[in-house]
Design brief:
alpha+beta; globular; 2 domains; 10 helices; Coagulation Factor XIII, Chain A, domain 1; 6-stranded mixed β-sheet
Length: 392
């Protein structure tokens, strides 16, 4: 193990035994304990996984639900022992796996701060010194004398996270910390991660948030069905994950599932071709009356519209037909985008049908904009200042 390697995972496998027998009494439990042929199923959560984490890396672990990510994190934390292979950790490791473990619902928020601080190894004087920072970070000043059972789940998570980040450790394990809490809390998490990255702290980060993986991770792995399938550039791995989570079967079934409203309007939309810089969206519409119609298309990123267009001036539609639109996607930065389509009546601009298809597309490769959707033309100008000295 090299000096700069702080975690080494060597051909690790983990198998869980799932029993099929039910014990309804102490007698049946004892009898089944001595049976030679016991009925159980083996679940192979991890299979021959090997990698290393170097000191100062922000290391990402990516994979779909059930792929084995959390199992791997618990092996690193020492909660599980591997069925085969070995895990070596150099330094003190602090897991942020189950935030709020050790909280007592019958105690106040204040008492839980001191209780959790003691579990993390701090004495009362040390907790008292950091108490105000903990409460300010969690934004719970008004609620610290209330019992924890009266807190919302978001309030409990904010308090737990605020306490946990005070823990002493050389290596931090973070499991889906950003999956809970409101937008303001998530931004505080981002700010904290920025501090960790700038301080060259060693972090192992499990997440489904690919924007966070791209933003913070310096290296990553992709776990699929318990196996390590990719290792290296977090931008490329995040793209692979995103593509794997777009289900092409949704678009194949879209023609049959296109919505029809009570007035007999119908619309479906599908991406029918794609190149590096362009894609073609084909829309089929129909109406059982002769009212004039128009189509609208929206481009979405992270649930927000970043571009909209319609045919209100260029095409007046009636009856039944097919419309194609050629979209320039060369203007977009890396990320996952979605196209939505809608059909409107021209005379009152009323929405009468929408397409239910999952028309998603991924633009790969990295950019330096930290998640911005559109590429802008560079127009920077630099005016250099010349230092002058003054003689006495």
């Amino acid at each position: 193990m090299h000096n700069d390697v702080v975690i080494e995972v060597d051909h690790v496998g983990k198998i869980f035994k799932l029993p099929h027998e039910k014990h309804s009494s102490v007698k049946s439990l004892i009898l089944n304990f001595y049976k030679r042929d016991k009925s159980y199923e083996e679940q192979r959560a991890l299979n021959d996984v090997s990698f290393t984490v170097k000191k100062g890396e922000f290391f990402g672990i990516v994979g779909r639900n059930g792929s084995g990510k959390s199992t791997l994190l618990k092996l690193l934390a020492g909660i599980y022992t591997p069925s085969r292979g070995g895990v070596t950790v150099q330094g003190k490791l602090t897991p942020f796996i189950e935030l709020g473990v050790g909280f007592s619902p019958e105690l106040s928020g204040r008492d839980n701060v001191f209780l959790s601080g003691a579990l993390l190894g701090f004495n009362r004087r040390e907790v008292r010194a950091m108490y105000d920072d903990i409460v300010n970070f969690a934004e719970l000043e008004r609620f610290m004398d209330q019992k924890l059972k009266n807190y919302s789940s978001g309030m409990q998570v904010r308090l737990a996270f605020s306490i946990a980040i005070r823990a002493r450790g050389d290596i931090l394990l973070l499991d889906e910390v950003l999956a809970v809490g409101d937008a303001a809390f998530q931004q505080k998490c981002y700010d904290y991660f920025e501090e960790l990255k700038q301080a060259k702290k060693t972090v192992v980060f499990v997440s489904h948030d690919m924007s966070a993986v791209k933003r913070f991770c310096t290296r990553a792995i992709y776990i699929e069905e318990g196996k390590l399938t990719y290792e290296g550039d977090p931008l490329a791995i995040a793209d692979e994950y995103t593509v794997a989570n777009i289900n092409p079967e949704d678009n194949e079934a879209a023609d049959e599932n296109a919505p029809i409203n009570s007035d007999g309007y119908k619309l479906d939309a599908k991406i029918t071709s794609r190149s590096a810089d362009r894609l073609k969206l084909t829309l089929n519409y129909s109406s059982k009356n002769d009212k004039e119609l128009y189509l609208g298309i929206s481009v979405l990123k992270d649930g927000a519209s970043i571009g909209e267009l319609n045919t209100i001036k260029s095409l007046r539609l009636k009856g039944k037909g097919t419309v194609s639109y050629d979209l320039d996607i060369g203007v977009y930065n890396a990320g996952t985008y979605r196209l939505t389509a809608a059909l409107f009546t021209l005379w009152n601009k009323k929405l009468v049908a929408s397409a239910s298809d999952r028309n998603e597309f991924v633009i790969k490769n990295g950019d330096e904009t930290r998640g911005a959707a559109l590429k802008l033309t560079d127009t920077w100008e630099l005016e250099r200042s010349v230092a002058t000295g003054h003689e006495d």
